[in-house]
């Protein structure tokens, strides 16, 4: 079955999420795609618990809270999310609209497309463990959205960088027990954090070095144990409910580079007044979009979302210009007006 909508948004990062709101405010319905299985882009995948200080009106807000608030703000417009799938194909239709096809074979037709793809589709660097795919999102995770999801669980954390060490510290006292596995006895993480980790060794966290992941034991959904092996072949079986593997995320502009838009060093040049790319009907906003003087900041992307929504409206209404209104005059659905 082919789904249909007004606007297809590729990328559910902070900027893609705000584009739902801006499109909704001018009466455009949206379907939103992301290769990750959670919304929030870099804020969710790279720094959910780090504070951001330059979001207008929020002197300090964590990446995760910003994403939650953007989802709440977008919800009244009933966006349809297609997460955990990459948009692989974008074809122009004879009527001027577009057909998108995802990595899971989903097909959608849209009147216009907003690409809010950041540096490209995120994907984890997976440890090469047989059968790992079936545990992903259930017992094996490559990023953490909420520490509370691991309360009372036996957790194995693997990796030697900031994410691995920071999450071990954050989950200490929340998880029932943590095994921290790294293939070397040196860590790349910030020295202060490594020192704190060392202080907790044997007190809720057991550091298992130099060992690397070797196998998963479980029923394919729930985990019983993670088997680790040392360089000289010693095996250890670590009982576990969850494995958090932090070997970095790779991002890849991938298919977007082949859709016929002009490219400039892995970015999409746009007209800053409208955010339209070199292809009419295809818009780019947020980190993926570029023009002279572009600032790669979340707040810049928010303004670009508004520009794109206003430019798309006449395209989908036979050239009829949008009657500009402030949100204070218009109100927003689901939100009480005074
Ligand atoms: P992203 O957040 O990158 O989201 C893009 C999404 O598109 C991704 O989830 C990706 O999976 C998806 N995607 C891409 N291609 C496809 C495809 N083909 N199909 C499906 N999905 C696709 N900015 C600030 O303003 N203030 C800060 O304090 C700040 N601190 C930061 C700290 C760190 C550690 C980092 C890494 C960044 C920080 N940034 C900060 C930058 C900010 O996170 C980015 O500017 C912002 O995330 C860009 O949002 P976006 O929605 O354009 O893209």
Keywords for this entry:
single chain; 338 residues; alpha/beta; FAD/NAD(P)-binding domain; 2 domains; five-stranded parallel sheet; 21 strands; 29% strand; elongated; binds flavin-adenine dinucleotide
Give a verbal description of the structure.
The chain has helices spanning 14-25, 41-45, 63-74, 162-171, 191-200, 298-315, 327-330, and strands at residues 2-10, 30-34, 51-52, 61-62, 80-83, 87-92, 98-102, 107-115, 121-124, 140-141, 154-158, 177-181, 205-208, 211-218, 223-230, 235-239, 242-245, 249-252, 268-269, 282-284, 289-290. With 338 residues, it is an alpha/beta fold. The protein is elongated and about 70 Å long. The two termini are 43 Å apart. The mean pLDDT is 94. The structure holds flavin-adenine dinucleotide. Flavin-adenine dinucleotide (FAD) binds at residues 10-16, 33-36, 41-43, 46-47, 52, 54, 86-87, 116-122, 255-256, 286-287, 296-299, 301. Flavin-adenine dinucleotide binds next to helix 1, strand 2, helix 2, strand 9 and helix 6.
Question: What is the structure about, briefly put?
Answer:
With 338 residues, the chain is of the alpha/beta class.
Which helices and strands occur, and which strands form pairs?
Layout: E1 2-10, H1 14-25, E2 30-34, H2 41-45, E3 51-52, E4 61-62, H3 63-74, E5 80-83, E6 87-92, E7 98-102, E8 107-115, E9 121-124, E10 140-141, E11 154-158, H4 162-171, E12 177-181, H5 191-200, E13 205-208, E14 211-218, E15 223-230, E16 235-239, E17 242-245, E18 249-252, E19 268-269, E20 282-284, E21 289-290, H6 298-315, H7 327-330
Parallel strand pairs: 1-2, 1-8, 2-5, 8-20, 10-17, 11-12, 11-17, 12-13, 19-21
Antiparallel strand pairs: 3-4, 6-7, 7-8, 9-18, 14-15, 15-16
The structure holds flavin-adenine dinucleotide.
